[in-house]
Specification:
Keywords: Signal. It is built from one helix and 51 strands. One calcium ion binds next to loops.
Length: 546
């Protein structure tokens, strides 16, 4: 059994499962000819990439901000305003502006919600503007998500600028604003749309070097099993050195589907859905070298209790694959984990995906896996940790070299936000963690699960907001905890910890806790102790609020 039980039976929480679909997807083929541009997925230290720019506005004059590699934000002379991958903050003299530049003539639809980081201050004004024409604006005063309206099917000319503007209203206090817009762009003359086949009917052409699963007997939307057709397509694709393409529609799978060195690609997570009909046996398993799963949604028609935590009832299980990619995938519901990486998998990327409503962890990396990047994902309302690195002593090799960056996580998830429970060389950067029931950031060696030691963990530029909700545990926003073994070289720098449900920061437990560094963090805390440091060698430098 690999999945741990972390939530006491006394823990009663209300999960908010949102059905809205905003945020996490990168540039992708959402439907024929339409490209999706996600601000967070396209975020770069180079302006004009993919095709975002980062600016400030005074009056009617837009000018570029400078990239600050220390904070990984675009800012004005090291101060306000700034723009990050999924947030912005206005200044006194300038508005914060994220700008998208149309790559060609066409039309756009804008999605993604706006919310304050907290409900204090006099709020911000969020404005969407096409060149100098205002399309939408709203006064945003709280953490409640506001959805822009009237921003669909907007015609644009090549080079048109869509500005996402954050104005301070009056005071700039508490004006941290979460806004990760997505622009769906359909070019005026789409080369991918409307290609006719010999019968004259319009057909969607699969990408080159893919075999279409419909050519092997899969039938969309007929509520009948497509498992045999998928297996036949995958077998043939392997012989021909190709991948398998799944067009728009819902397809049903009656048992585990194994991608053994063969990639599977959909037409986009909004339009291609794989539905597993056996809640005990429905994982998409990934093996081999270079295997990819992209551009689709995976869900279950029903789920069962987490029970023994079997991997067969995950949504996606990476079983020792190397150089794997999971990108632009929407995982909705699973009896156990959303995406589980095990079997000493290595050199993998999980990006621009969304994991929601699972009974165990959202994304879980374990069993000696290494060189794994988890970036630009959204993890909401999961039954355990949102993103966890876990090393059990019984597995031998510990997990190492994992990068967890620019993810947006929490939203009522039942246990910790981002957790390292055994492992070394883990970088946790630029993430947002909010509204988790246990600690937002959790670095631990757990005797109860017999997990490995922890060393070289760097936690930089994250925003941790209102975590540790659950009593009686009353976790702080960030917790370093050892009940066996040792923890050393844990560095927290440039993080924002705020609005903790019960207390600010903690380092405790009976294990051997060595050097823990807190440098240039900000703590805004109004409940309980700011710090509970009862173990460890604590190094504090230039922090604000503690
Ligand atoms: Ca304000
Ligand atoms: Ca079918």
């Amino acid at each position: 059994m690999k999945i741990k039980y972390l939530v006491s039976s006394a823990l009663v929480v209300t999960l908010t499962m949102t059905a809205t679909f905003t945020g996490a997807f990168g540039k992708a083929q959402a439907q024929s000819g339409t490209q999706s541009y996600s601000a967070s997925a396209g975020y770069s230290s180079t302006a004009g990439q993919d095709p975002w720019r980062y600016q400030k506005l005074s009056g009617t004059v837009f000018s570029d901000l400078g990239y600050n590699s220390a904070t990984r934000r675009w800012d004005h002379s090291g101060s306000y305003p700034w723009v990050s991958s999924n947030a912005g903050h206005p200044g006194k003299d300038f508005d914060s502006v994220r700008t998208w530049v149309a790559p060609a003539d066409g039309k756009i639809s804008i999605s993604g919600t706006v919310a304050k980081g907290d409900s204090l201050g006099d709020g911000i004004r969020a404005i969407i503007q096409k060149d100098s024409v205002k399309l939408w604006s709203a006064h945003v005063t709280s953490k409640a998500e506001v959805t822009p309206s009237g921003v669909s099917e907007v015609p644009v000319k090549q080079g048109a600028k869509i500005h996402f503007i954050i104005n301070r209203v009056n005071s700039i206090n508490n004006d941290h604003t979460l806004w990760n817009p997505r622009v769906d762009f359909t070019p005026a003359q789409s080369p991918a749309a409307g290609i006719s086949d010999s019968s004259g009917a319009t057909a969607e052409t699969p990408p080159v070097n893919h075999l279409n699963v419909e050519g092997f007997g899969a039938v969309a939307n007929d509520n009948k099993d497509d498992y045999a057709a998928f297996v036949a397509a995958l077998d043939q694709a392997k012989k021909e050195g190709k991948s398998v393409y799944v067009p728009a529609g819902s397809f049903h799978l009656s048992r585990i589907l194994t991608l053994d060195g063969v990639s599977l690609k959909g037409a986009g997570p909004q339009v291609t859905t794989l539905i597993s009909t056996n809640p005990e046996n429905g994982s998409i398993d990934m093996k081999g070298v270079g295997v990819q799963l992209r551009d689709l949604k995976h869900t279950y028609s029903t789920v069962v209790p987490r029970g023994n935590g079997a991997n067969e009832k995950n949504s996606i299980t990476v079983r020792g694959a190397s150089q794997f990619l999971i990108d632009n995938v929407y995982v909705y519901k699973a009896s156990t984990a959303g995406i589980l990486v095990q079997g000493q998998a290595k050199q993998g990327v999980i990006s621009n995906s969304r994991v929601e409503a699972t009974n165990a962890d959202g994304i879980h990396v374990t069993d000696g896996s290494s060189y794994i990047t988890v970036s630009g994902n959204t993890v909401k309302g999961v039954g355990d940790d949102t993103i966890a690195v876990v090393s059990y002593l019984q597995d031998g090799a510990a997990v190492h070299h994992v990068t967890i960056k620019d993810n947006d996580t929490g939203y009522g998830s039942k246990a910790r936000g981002i957790a390292v429970v055994g492992g070394f060389h883990v970088d946790i950067q630029g993430n947002s963690v909010k509204d988790t029931n246990m600690a937002g950031i959790y670095i631990a060696v757990e005797g109860s699960y017999n997990t490995a030691n922890v060393n070289h963990i760097h936690i930089n530029n994250n925003v941790v907001d209102h975590t540790g909700i659950s009593a009686p545990q009353k976790h702080p926003n960030a917790l370093v905890y050892a009940s066996q073994g040792s923890i050393d070289n844990v560095t927290f720098s440039n993080n924002m910890f705020r609005n903790a449900a019960h207390r600010g920061l903690g380092v405790w437990g009976d294990g051997n806790i060595k050097n823990i560094y807190f440098t240039k963090n900000t703590l805004i805390n109004s409940v309980g102790a700011n710090t509970t440091f009862s173990n460890g060698i604590i190094h504090l430098m230039q922090n604000i609020g503690f």
